[in-house]
TrEMBL record:
Pathway: Carbohydrate degradation; pentose phosphate pathway. It is an enzyme of class 3 (hydrolase). InterPro entries: 6-phosphogluconolactonase_DevB, 6PGL, Glc/Gal-6P_isomerase, NagB/RpiA_transferase-like. SUPFAM superfamilies: NagB/RpiA/CoA transferase-like (SSF100950). Its EC number is 3.1.1.31. PANTHER family: 6-PHOSPHOGLUCONOLACTONASE, 6-PHOSPHOGLUCONOLACTONASE-RELATED. This is Probable 6-phosphogluconolactonase. Belongs to the glucosamine/galactosamine-6-phosphate isomerase family. 6-phosphogluconolactonase subfamily.
């Protein structure tokens, strides 16, 4: 696969993606790429489109975005339902723990879910819940009653299939009690889905070259042969992810540059099937992308 060399001195404003006007399958030549000078962007400290000069700037913009959504959704409904991923995303949420967000956000009205989990004890270093709890949830006043881990809180470790059944049941109860609405296509509709991706284009635990990305029921599925450790995973199916009112895709770091390039419409190796992360664009709502310059290193104008 031939890729352009990164040019660290340039940055790119791809506002069209932020507004959902472009699709991931558009060719680079059809996109509006505005080059700007990295030093002026860094000096202004402001976000420019969706590619930010640093991971720190991504974290700041993400906090502003999430806090604004929380306020907007809570004007009309009792709870703000947020679905977390694991991985680097959790660290990037850190600015929400600082002023002004820490005091302004109505944390007691958040309900927290996960897009995926590793089938391990909640105390394991591999647990997405533990990561989120230690780094984020334990530092804000969200009641434990409003946190819905994908693994049992009693520390038991079910099989991946049992864990998926259990979470399906939890989501069903929340739908039945009208806390989670159903989308027009019959899937639970969360307010905000916070996604990362792996270098291979995963979303949650929907891995390329596995059947789960094409599964549409039940709402939560599982695998016991994930290509990355640990092998047991529970994950929301794609239509549940796609039904969320808002989706943020947060990608920082050079190891994601290739997958970002492909997702944003760059040249793709012949025969490469559509990656799970490429499927989250929807006509119903935009995907808000938060990329740092490292993740966007291959996105160069033609
Ligand atoms: O295993 C997982 O990895 C992905 C990506 O994590 P990152 O460290 O590359 O950002 C994460 O989104 C997912 O929730 C997690 O289970």
């Amino acid at each position: 696969m031939h890729l352009p060399h990164p040019q660290p001195k340039t940055c790119i404003n791809m506002q069209r993606y932020a507004t959902g006007m472009a699709t991931p399958t558009a060719s680079p030549s059809s996109l509006t790429l505005l080059l700007c000078d990295q030093s002026s962007m860094a000096a202004s400290g402001k976000k420019s489109g969706e590619i930010f000069p640093s991971e720190e700037a991504v974290a700041e913009a993400l906090a502003e975005y999430v806090a604004e959504l929380s306020a907007r959704f809570l004007k009309d409904k009792q709870f703000f339902t947020v679905v977390l991923s694991g991985g680097t995303l959790i660290h990037t949420l850190r600015k929400l723990l600082e002023s002004p967000y820490r005091d302004e956000v109505k944390w007691s009205r958040w309900k927290i879910f996960w897009v995926d989990e590793r089938v391990v004890s909640l105390k394991s270093q591999d647990s997405n819940y533990k990561l989120a709890f230690d780094e984020f949830l334990s530092k804000v006043p969200i009641s434990q009653n409003n946190i819905y881990p994908m693994m049992p809180i009693d520390g038991s470790i079910p099989t991946p299939e049992e864990a998926a059944d259990r979470y399906n049941g939890i989501l069903k109860e929340l739908v039945d009690s009208k806390i989670l609405p159903l989308s027009a296509t019959g899937y639970p509709k969360f307010d905000l889905m916070l996604l990362g991706t792996g270098p291979s284009g995963t979303v949650g635990s929907l891995f390329p070259n596995r059947p789960q990305p094409n599964t549409d029921k039940p709402w939560v599925t599982f695998l016991d042969d994930a290509p990355e450790k640990p092998p047991g995973r529970v994950t929301l199916v794609f239509p549940v992810i796609d039904s969320a009112s808002e989706i943020a895709l947060v990608v920082t770091g050079i190891k994601f540059a290739l997958v970002v390039y492909v997702v944003m419409g760059g040249h793709r190796p012949p025969g490469l099937p559509k990656l799970p992360v490429e499927r989250i664009q929807s006509k119903q709502r935009s995907v808000t992308r938060f990329l740092d310059q490292d993740a966007a290193a291959f996105l160069l104008p033609k």
